[in-house]
Amino acid sequence: MAELTEQRLGYGFGLLGGALIALAGLVSLSVGTAELLLGRPLVAIGAAGNAMVLFVVGGLAMFFAWLSRHDWSARPFASGVLLTLLAVVGWAIVGIDSSLLALIGSLFAFLAGVLFLIEPTRKAAAAVVSA
Fold first, then answer.
1. Alpha-carbon distance 67 to 79, whole Å?
2. Model confidence over 106-128: pLDDT tens digits?
3. Which of 78, 83, 77 is nearest to 60 (CA)?
4. What is the pLDDT of residue 1?
5. Which is nearest to 69 in space by CA: 3, 12, 20, 107?
6. How many CA atoms lie within 13 Å of 51's alpha carbon, on the beta-carbon side?
7. How far apart are the C-alpha atoms of 77 and 54, rounded to whole Å?
8. What are the distances in angstroms from CA 95 to CA 26, 88, 101, 116?
9. Rg (CA), the chain
10. Which residues lie below 8 Å from residue 5, measured CB to CB, with a gap of 6+?
């Protein structure tokens, strides 16, 4: 079995986090559709807007996790910073009591970003200590 490294684990967490955020967007879009059918168009517009933002944040999280495994595999720092920022944006959008799926997805994206930052931090600390 292949060795489980920080980058592989971060890749999985990033994909899982992005998928959960996108799933929360799908749930929000479904709620918006139900609200529209119940005759509350303003609530439906708010839910649809929230769903679009969640789709974008979830898609970006999955994209940067994918990049970290394929094109940016030699540069995990960039993926780590971007996934951490996306997690913070996800938390800011979702809030605490809005969507549990998006909150858990943002947590996984944050953990993925931290995992990608471990190796560059270790190299930087070794360079500082040896200097």
1. 8
2. 999 999 999 988 888 888 888 88
3. 83
4. 40
5. 12
6. 16
7. 24
8. 17, 10, 12, 25
9. 17
10. none
